[in-house]
Design a protein that fits this description.
CATH superfamily of the largest domain: Bordetella uptake gene, domain 1
Shape: globular
Radius of gyration: 22 Å
Structural class: alpha/beta
CATH architecture of the largest domain: 3-Layer(aba) Sandwich
Number of strands: 10
CATH class of the largest domain: Alpha Beta
């Protein structure tokens, strides 16, 4: 008797979930962005929201909740109902936050349902045009000869850019001097003005300065050369560091426990949206490579990056925030 009751309850849950998925969405969807308006992550979110509103038949409304490099929005989403009406644009800072912060009010992988990656882009190591460092090997050798003297203008402790420089130093067996600034917008002028020896920034930011001859790019952090600056070698090519690859990215997530039919509907909608020529063109204009993934592929990438950055923090005795 008890077995029949449990089976009936399970069937009722399945039928209820299926019916809910068929009617989803029946009201506006909130898309949380953990960064201020106008930045790359926010821009990706707004382009997606506009197109997904068309496909889903309900408004997808962007809500900015900046704070702690995206962690404030992640906390709110992790605690939200898993009904498909609260989504989040996640950035490559998410796994870095998990590694650099001593504690967080959510588990960085398993407290979320991962929907799809949307766009990714590498970083570039660059120096001012007058720099004596003509190559990445020059930079590394100088740091090896005089530890903690070759300075990196970072975008702030715990930023992906900062961690990328730390990863290079660890892989090459050298120590750079970190000089933190409040974001790329301040770190780049410091490099141009000679306050610091090099800078790690998104490729889109440095392309105009490379074209004008004010910056010399030493390497890109992608596994292959980047389409915007194809003459610039990868870190592996320029520095001889095997398997070095760092990309930042944006993608969509929801609270853990999102019903499978709703997850599949949202994944399909992201795929449809990024395939629209105008949408793809706008997303590419932000400097990224546009591509959707399966939920499992996105979860696996986030988990790998959490593990990588956590290991770097541990192995280098990096101070945690």
């Amino acid at each position: 008797m008890a077995g029949r009751l449990l089976a009936a309850v399970a069937m009722a849950v399945v039928l209820c979930t299926g019916a809910h998925a068929q009617t989803y969405p029946s009201r506006p969807i909130k898309l949380m962005v953990g960064f201020p308006p106008g930045g790359n992550v926010d821009s990706v979110g707004r382009v997606l929201a506009q197109e997904m509103s068309k496909g889903l038949g309900q408004p997808v409304v962007v809500e900015n909740k900046p704070g702690v490099v995206g962690s404030l929005a992640a906390e709110l989403v992790a605690k939200a109902p898993a009904d498909g009406y609260t989504l989040m644009v996640v950035a490559g800072a998410h796994p870095v936050n998990a590694a650099i912060h001593q504690s967080q009010p959510y588990e960085p992988v398993n407290d979320f349902t991962w929907i799809s990656m949307v766009t990714s882009y590498p970083f570039a190591f660059s120096v001012r045009a007058e720099s004596p460092f003509k190559s990445l090997k020059d930079l590394i050798e100088a740091a090896r000869a005089k530890p903690n003297t070759v300075s990196n203008g970072s975008s702030g402790q715990g930023s992906v850019q900062h961690m990328t420089a730390e990863l290079l130093g660890y892989a090459a067996g050298v120590h750079f001097l970190e000089v933190p600034y409040k974001g790329e917008a301040l770190a780049l002028p410091a490099a141009l003005g000679g306050e610091v020896d090099f800078v790690v920034t998104t490729t889109t930011l440095v392309v105009p300065f490379i074209g004008s001859g004010k910056l010399r790019p030493l390497a890109v952090t992608s596994a292959q050369r980047w389409k915007e600056i194809p003459d610039v070698p990868t870190v592996q090519e320029a520095g001889g560091i095997k398997d070095f690859e760092v990309t930042s990215w944006s993608g969509l997530a929801a609270p853990h426990g999102l019903p499978e039919p709703i997850l599949q509907k949202l994944n399909a909608e992201v795929r449809r949206a990024v395939a629209v020529p105008d949408v793809r063109q706008r997303l590419e204009s932000f400097g990224g490579d546009v591509h959707a993934t399966t939920p499992d592929e996105m979860k696996a990438q986030v988990a790998r990056e959490v593990a990588r950055w956590t290991a770097l923090v541990r192995d280098t005795n990096m101070p945690r925030l």
